[in-house]
Amino acid sequence: xxxxxxxxxxxxxxxxMSTSTAQVHSELKLRCSTSRLDPGGGGVNVSRVVRRxxxxxxxxxTAGGPIGxxxxxxxxxxxxxxxxxxxxxxxxESFTVSEESSGKQFRFVLGGPELSNTxxxxxxxxxxxxxxxxxxxxxxxSLPPGVPDDFYARVVRLAHEHGARCIVDAAxxxxxxxxxxxxxxxSPSRRELSILFxxxxxxxxxxxxxARTLIANGSAEYVALTLGADGALLVSRDGTLRLQAPIVDxxxxxxxxxxxxxxxxxRLAQQRSVEEAFRAAVAAGAAAVMRPxxxxxxxxxxxxxEAGLIPVAGQA
Length: 316
Prior knowledge:
The chain is of the alpha/beta class. The chain is built from 10 helices and 14 strands. It has helices at residues 42-52, 65-77, 117-130, 151-161, 172-179, 190-197, 204-216, 256-269, 274-289, 299-307, and strands spanning 6-10, 14-21, 36-40, 58-63, 82-86, 92-99, 105-109, 136-140, 165-169, 183-186, 220-226, 232-236, 239-243, 312-313. It has a 10-stranded mixed sheet with strand order 5-4-1-8-9-10-11-12-13-14, sandwiched between helices. Strands 3-2-6-7 form a 4-stranded mixed sheet. Strand 9 (165-169), helix 5 and strand 10 (183-186) form a beta-alpha-beta unit. Helix 3 packs parallel to helix 4. The longest helix is centred in the C-terminal third of the chain and has 16 residues, at 274-289. The protein is globular, with a radius of gyration of 19 Å.
């Protein structure tokens, strides 16, 4: 029984820099620790984690300018197979500073370069060439200026046309448009689901009801709701699964959602059960927060946490 292909798409990647300082003050020069550089962005992070967990993946992403050159070098250094869509603008950057005295984390995300019609259409062309029948397409991350809100909806349509299952991890109008096409899985945070329904959704019952609405109207087959330290909910036509997050030392929350998604799609690609995929997802998300800055998760941590998790049927 072979592993099904996993293809990821990132149209607004970011070169992530992370560092720490004793305390954050305004106006003063803040002496920081040695910085770390990582290639970030939703889909790319998913591919990085899939690779670390022993899976096979292909990442499609945009890159341009000197930052884009550095970004490509880092991707190559991690051994992640990729198709690069060249763009005229320079790849964006993001900056994360951990305050050692408080444990707080400050995240600064710069705006992405504006893509021309030719450039974002090229992303769809690259995707069309790479989609494999029976595989998974993970479209994840924000859209840069110039890219229409229905971009992910177009990705979902392409996946359907090629017999692939499409997972969308986005927020706001791009997610709303994608849901009109019928996604395989979405993985919103509690806040993102609340925005989608324009409601608070504070109780577990209200969250499950919202997810069931999406499933009933054909917007998604699965809704994996990430709840941070409270774990996650998985809702489908077959019912609801609930998992508490394992208790770990939280060092950095950067990339936890991407790691969650990577664990999920990898186990599905390995033709494991949905319950096993859900367990791997929660384990990968928890393992990611154990690592500093933008390092993401380690395979040994994921497998150790995964072994101790047992999904239970939701009560809602």
